[in-house]
Amino acid sequence: MHWDVQVFPELNSTQDLCKQIASDGKPEGFVIQALQQMCGLGRLGRTWIMQEGNLALSFILRPKSCHASQIGQISILIGVALAKAIGEKAVLKWPNDILVNNKKCAGVLIDSDLSAEMLNWLVVGIGVNTSQAPPIGSALNVDRDEFCGQMLTQIEALYELWQDEGFGDIRKQWLQRTFPKGSALNVGEFETIDDFGNLIVRDGQNQLKTISAGDVFLKDQNYVAGN
Ligand code: BTN
Q: Taking burial as the number of CB atoms within 10 A of a residue's CB, which of 5, 10, 94, 203 is the most buried?
């Protein structure tokens, strides 16, 4: 894949512009980055406040013959790539938040376009607190452009691995970088993720439950979802 990065001094949302460009037919690998983002979009209808010096970008993927049920695999893949770019201190929180010192330092938003359950395109939006963070978040204190390059390299490598060999190894890598099995989450005890990237937890009746959307956090920590 070839990355084609277009940098804008200011945008309302890289995600909105990138979705527009994807529906106009731009190819995979097209990246929209904003140095300032005024109305950033977060998961579950939230807003994403980008502070000065942080990274905000969105890019297009067009995986071939990809069923809607596999979008969760790509979401997991992006989380692993971000964690690898950050290093040992990064911990993954389902579905694709990245925590450093138990606080969120990066978030991922994925939009998709489908025809008859098959994927036309995905737009992956990533916000990283490379330089500053709100009180409930953490910052990496790294050079934004250098980090951006490392992150795109990791994403490209894992995307190729996923296309060539499937989800198995990426799933294992994600499990090595998340909370230990048995951790008490708000939705039950953490068990694993399944072959589609869904979260599996054990509920109070010792039954396994599959969770495919929503917010998850550790019960014993005052972690606030969102930014
Ligand atoms: C989340 O809620 O954790 C996801 C946050 C995603 C924010 C990024 S910043 C770049 C891209 N453009 C947006 O408007 N949102 C995403």
A: 94
Q: Is the C-alpha dihedral spanning 209, 211, 215, 217 positive or negative? A: positive
Q: Is 40 in the pocket of ligand 1 (CB under 6 A)?
A: yes
CA distance 62 to 48: 25
Cβ–ligand 1 contact at 125 (below 6 Å) = yes
Q: What's the mean pLDDT when you consider all of the chain?
A: 94
pTM, rounded to two decimals: 0.95
Euclidean distance between CA atoms 77 and 79, whole angstroms: 5
Task: Give yes or no for residue 59 CB within 6 A of ligand 1.
Answer: no
> For 133, phi and psi rounded to 5 degrees?
-145, 150
Report percent pLDDT > 70 for the chain. 96
In angstroms, the CA 193 to CA 172 distance is 9
At the top level of CATH, which class does the domain 4-179 belong to?
Answer: alpha beta
* CB 109 near ligand 1, within 6 Å: yes
b/e 132-149 (16+ beta carbons within 10 angstroms → b)? ebeeebbbbebebeebbe
Query: Is the alpha carbon torsion for 154, 136, 127, 140 positive or negative?
Result: negative
